[in-house]
Amino acid sequence: MVEDLDAPRLANRAVAKARANELGPAIRHAMAACVIDPGRASFFALLATLKSLDEDLHGAINDIKKAIAIEPTDIKQLLTLGELLRRTGRIRDAATLLSGAVAQAPDDWRVWVNYGIVSEFGWRNLDAALAFRRAFCLRPDRVEFAFRDLLSLPAISRSPEDIAFWRRRYEKGIERLRRFPPALENPAEILGAPAFYLAYHNEDDRALMEALRRMMRATVPNLAYTAKYIDSWKAPNPRERRIRVGFISEYLSNHTIGKLYQGFLLHIDRRRFEVFLIHTPGTRDDDFRSYLDGIVDRTLTLPVGREEQCRILAGLELDVLFYPDIGMTASTYFLAYARLAPVQTVAWGHPDTTGLDTIDYFISSAVLEPENADQFYTERLVKLAGLPCFYEPPTVPDTIASREIFDLPKTGTLYACPQSLFKLHPEFDAVLAEIAERDPDGHIVFLAAGHVVQTDQLLQRWEANHPILLKRTTFLPRQSFPRFLQLMGVVDVLLDPIHFGSGNTMYEAMVHGTPTVTWPGRFMRGRIVAAAYARMDISDAPVVDEISDYAAMAVSLGQSAERREDLRHRSRIAAREKLFSDLSAVREFEAFLEEAVEARGAGRMLPADWRRRGR
């Protein structure tokens, strides 16, 4: 038919098919329109949009480039290309393109926003902040641009002075934002986790987190939600019903949080507790999630939208809402501003105070916390006797690994720090450099960051301050979990980052007993490895009292195979007996839940020095 050869009609059909969720036919119609009229940029732009919806990002890039070739001054198409480049991980290309767009259209707020987003993904925080500031100047009604400017924090800091600069800027930003009228809608979708990187600065975050909470309550409408049933709630009579406990996180799947809490979910006494597993919309759908769903009494996934989330959670009429982590994701951080259960508590999944007046308790451990730790928390600090975790030991792969399969040097000590690179405080660089200098035959192994820019920024920091590390370090690609476990057995010595150390990795390393050198820091987040060794009763564990002794301890271990193997052997045995599968942690957690509910029913909280009854 003649109309079938009419390009505009074909384009309209493509749009109609796309609206009907028929992407295949939509793409075919749009392709036909491009063939019939190859000089129309809008047809190629439509085809690019449809392919991106169909997750054919590379095809979309090719088509939007054709549209730009036809109309090179069309800013909308440049922005589309920038977004597609970002989504395919080509951050530098996207930044270059959008910097050109900024020069071409400096008064177009859309260009500045897109440049800011790409700069954020490229961890170019100052560029991002300035871009969002310019966008806000052009569109002062879009207050989210001001939030993204003033609450920006880098993942990789250049120096301690750089950390101090960004923290001062963050603090002043909170004060500026607090003067804004209540206008920020949907903060979880706009801001991400607004304070995540504060915990990696080795500073007391309580005052900043409280200031952040006060500002958010003043500028974000409807944060102050309270479930209606709480007004008439009474502590349950154990003869009439079980205590309802909800576990809520975005990471109750194949993630550190899922691994840390699967033991609690599995072993909590179902005669006394009804366990709810609550996923947020961003929870990954994997086999581990399905396993966790199968071991609880009830599971649900929240929809998008905080108002509906609050309504659903209020309908559960929980006695306790337990957040394993608050601060890692926007979904739970902003939800936690609501009062959705009579008792609300958080734990060490993100080991920093929340600053929230709706979170009653922080579950930690007497072996983790330093003296006077209560001052660092807005929550009532509950210190269990042991580590607050029932950790199932992972199964070691049957295949015996070797250095060769990881393409690691055949000789010399392998020191490894297989942590997220944003854990590496600038002050740790000097320790690493000293290890490299003390052991000229040694090699330090890291895992590359998921974002290549983070790795590049760390290398730039080393080049400026400790260039020896550029020659003596190896970055492996991210590993599958079985391969990661094999790597833990191949390396000789693990290096625990100072100030914010390993947690889950410590448990995984103890399957092999691989020695981990550590220095307990000022805060709980830097004391986990030392606490695990104390729990295992390893009297000669590689735990140093002074940071100046760290490198010497690491190299001493690295150069003594006999001592390493002895420590490996004893640590493996001690981990099986005292670290893994700690049922006493479950029993103590149960006691906390019961007594916290009982106290709330009596109109009070548990005392700061709470201990399980009978202890």
Explain how this protein is built:
There is one protein chain. This protein is an alpha/beta fold and 615 residues long. It is globular and about 80 Å long. The chain has helices spanning 7-19, 23-36, 41-53, 57-70, 75-87, 91-104, 109-121, 125-138, 143-150, 160-178, 187-191, 206-219, 256-267, 287-294, 306-316, 330-335, 426-438, 452-465, 468-472, 481-490, 504-509, 528-536, 550-558, 561-579, 583-601, and strands spanning 243-249, 273-279, 298-301, 320-323, 343-346, 361-365, 380-384, 414-416, 443-447, 473-476, 493-495, 516-517. The longest helix is centred in the first third of the chain and has 19 residues, at 160-178.
Summarize the structure.
The chain has 615 residues and is an alpha/beta fold. The chain has helices spanning 7-19, 23-36, 41-53, 57-70, 75-87, 91-104, 109-121, 125-138, 143-150, 160-178, 187-191, 206-219, 256-267, 287-294, 306-316, 330-335, 426-438, 452-465, 468-472, 481-490, 504-509, 528-536, 550-558, 561-579, 583-601; strands at residues 243-249, 273-279, 298-301, 320-323, 343-346, 361-365, 380-384, 414-416, 443-447, 473-476, 493-495, 516-517.
